């Protein structure tokens, strides 16, 4: 197996203002399952197509946004290696003991230049529901809602994304699959730890530590259409779509959870290999890059974050 | 179809009492009809679609419609409403006490008069508001 070090996005912890409404949205509408609720009130969710304990953590707060974006690494010793490399880069590293979140081992955490907290961890228990391991059916529990298969990536907004790019490539061994360069500088980067077109993305933005969206993967374009039906049936606030991104080629819808955090459900996207070049976009075609069919960004893309 | 016809079709279910209808006036910009239980911003979006906010100097500021992003910040100058939770990153307790709210998160209980006060970013920090 060639994948080592950081494997993939593991979980994200997001802030919600109305917990019952958030649970209903993420379970009944997006199609996740509630695994458990912690003693401190945090709620842990997963897709039935994920093995690991949880991939979404909801924390009740008086403002929306993101607390943590966490990646899973291959083995426990990777945590010590990365802790050293992150500290050598000049970022303070802290340690979160096993059990802070149910089902997870120890984590290391640090704040990057854009203001976001990133964590790494190596160990996760499995939880139900999960895919079968032996003679597996395509699903054990019939998919519901939008039939999300996994938490896939986040797009985060903040300043100094040139430093984020340098850090993710040099310290966490990510590759830059795509980037947008405007006449006044770097606007956006799509970074991958594996073979997806992106595992995390950043857009340059004056305010630090902002969330643009948390994305869930769907099986195909038909499921994107079905997700659009769910959005209208339940009067969920839609941003744009169904449409497609030129960047990553994902077929997509953007919408908002009951606290105003943007979600994406998407299907498709190309396969990335580490020997592939970085695909680049400039100001003449960036509209097509963001929304391929509209060929223009909507007003909300650069201004609406939580 | 007129805006009033559109609204009637919302309320006209069998055995169902049509909701109350209130008028939202956006200071110097126009008016919108809003049904009880409807988000003010949703009523304003519909009115804009029917061309009833002609004097709005630019497009209605619509973001998440769920109280999180802060784009649709308004000052309620007159009238009663109930409200959902709004992100404290955008509406402080003192803002809220002064009638500064997010249009997406209030539900009129009477005719209301409001003015948009969209956040402006100065030196990377939200420091003041502009009236549109």
Main beta sheet strand tally, sense and closure of chain B: 6 strands, mixed
Count of separate DSSP helical elements of chain A: 6
Summarize model confidence as the mean pLDDT of chain B: 85
By DSSP, the count of extended strands of chain B is 8
Rg of chain B, nearest Å: 15 Å
Element string of chain B (H = helix, E = strand): HEEHEEHEEEE
Biggest β-sheet of chain A, characterized? 9 strands, mixed
Largest protein interface, residues of each chain? A-B, 24 and 21 residues
Task: Identify the strand order in the major beta sheet of chain A.
Answer: 14-15-16-13-9-12-11-10-17
Name of the CATH superfamily of chain B = Beta-grasp domain
The CATH class of the largest domain in chain A is Alpha Beta
Average pLDDT reading of chain A: 97
End-to-end distance of chain B, in Å?
29 Å
Write down the domain tally of chain A: 2
Q: How much of the residues of chain A is beta strand, in percent? A: 25-35%
| Percent of residues in beta strands of chain B | 25-35%
What does the model show?
- The complex is a heterodimer of chains A (306) and B (132).
- Chain A is an alpha/beta fold and 306 residues long.
- Chain A has two domains: 6-121, Roll (2,3-Dihydroxybiphenyl 1,2-Dioxygenase, domain 1); 152-303, Roll (2,3-Dihydroxybiphenyl 1,2-Dioxygenase, domain 1).
- Chain A has helices spanning 19-29, 76-89, 161-170, 221-233, 286-290, 299-303; strands at residues 6-16, 33-37, 43-46, 56-60, 65-73, 94-96, 107-111, 117-121, 150-158, 175-182, 185-192, 200-204, 210-217, 238-244, 251-256, 262-267, 279-281.
- In chain A, the strands form two sheets. Chain A has a nine-stranded mixed β-sheet with strand order 14-15-16-13-9-12-11-10-17.
- In chain A, a hairpin with a 5-residue loop joins β7 (107-111) and β8 (117-121).
- The longest helix of chain A is centred in the N-terminal third of the chain and has 14 residues, at 76-89.
- The N and C termini of chain A lie far apart (38 Å).
- The mean pLDDT of chain A is 97.
- Chain B is built from three helices and eight strands; from the N terminus they run αββαββαββββ.
- Chain B is an alpha+beta fold.
- The two termini of chain B are 29 Å apart.
- The longest helix of chain B has 10 residues, at 40-49.
- Chain B has a single domain, classed as Roll (Ubiquitin-like (UB roll)), CATH 3.10.20.30.
- In chain B, strands 1, 2, 3, 5, 7 and 8 form a six-stranded mixed β-sheet that branches.
- Helix content of chain B is 18%, strand content 34%.
- Chain B is globular and about 40 Å long.
- Chains A and B meet through α6 of A and loops of B.
């Amino acid at each position: 197996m060639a994948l080592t070090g950081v494997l993939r996005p593991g979980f994200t912890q997001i802030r919600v203002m109305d917990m019952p409404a958030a649970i209903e949205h993420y379970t009944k509408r997006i199609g996740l399952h509630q695994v458990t609720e912690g003693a401190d009130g945090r709620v842990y969710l997963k897709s039935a197509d994920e093995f690991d304990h949880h991939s979404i953590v909801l924390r009740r707060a008086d403002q929306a946004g993101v607390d943590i974006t966490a990646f899973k690494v291959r083995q426990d010793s990777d945590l010590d290696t990365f802790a050293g490399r992150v500290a050598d880069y000049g970022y303070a590293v802290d340690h979160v003991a096993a059990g802070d979140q149910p089902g997870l081992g120890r984590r290391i955490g640090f704040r990057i230049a854009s203001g976001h907290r990133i964590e790494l961890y190596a160990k996760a228990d499995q939880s139900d529901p999960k895919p079968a391991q032996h003679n597996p059916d395509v699903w054990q529990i019939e998919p519901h809602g939008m039939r999300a298969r996994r938490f896939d990536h986040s797009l985060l907004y903040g300043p100094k994304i040139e430093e984020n790019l340098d850090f993710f490539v040099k310290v966490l061994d990510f590759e830059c699959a795509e980037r947008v360069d405007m006449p006044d500088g770097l606007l956006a980067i799509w970074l991958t730890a594996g073979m997806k077109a992106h595992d995390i993305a950043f857009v340059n933005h004056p305010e630090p530590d902002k969330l643009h969206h948390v994305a869930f993967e769907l099986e195909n374009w038909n499921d994107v259409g079905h997700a659009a039906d769910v959005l209208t049936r339940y009067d969920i606030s839609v941003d744009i779509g169904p449409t497609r991104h030129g960047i990553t080629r994902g077929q997509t819808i953007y919408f908002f959870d009951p606290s105003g955090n943007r979600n994406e459900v998407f299907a498709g996207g190309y396969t990335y290999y580490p020997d592939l070049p970085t695909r680049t976009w400039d100001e003449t075609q960036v509209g097509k890059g963001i929304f391929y069919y509209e060929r223009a960004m909507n007003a909300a893309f650069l201004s609406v974050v939580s | 179809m007129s805006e009033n016809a559109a609204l009637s079709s919302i309320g006209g279910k069998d055995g169902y009492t049509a909701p109350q209808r209130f008028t939202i006036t956006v200071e110097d910009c126009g008016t919108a009809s809003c049904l009880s239980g409807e988000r003010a911003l949703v009523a304003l979006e519909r009115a804009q679609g029917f061309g009833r906010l002609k004097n709005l100097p630019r497009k209605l500021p619509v973001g998440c419609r769920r109280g999180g992003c802060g784009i649709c910040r308004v000052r309620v100058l007159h009238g009663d409403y109930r409200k959902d939770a709004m992100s404290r990153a955008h509406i402080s307790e003192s803002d809220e006490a002064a009638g500064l709210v997010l249009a997406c998160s209030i539900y009129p209980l009477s005719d209301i008069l409001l003015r948009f006060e969209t956040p402006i970013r100065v030196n990377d920090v939200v420091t003041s508001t502009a009236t549109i």
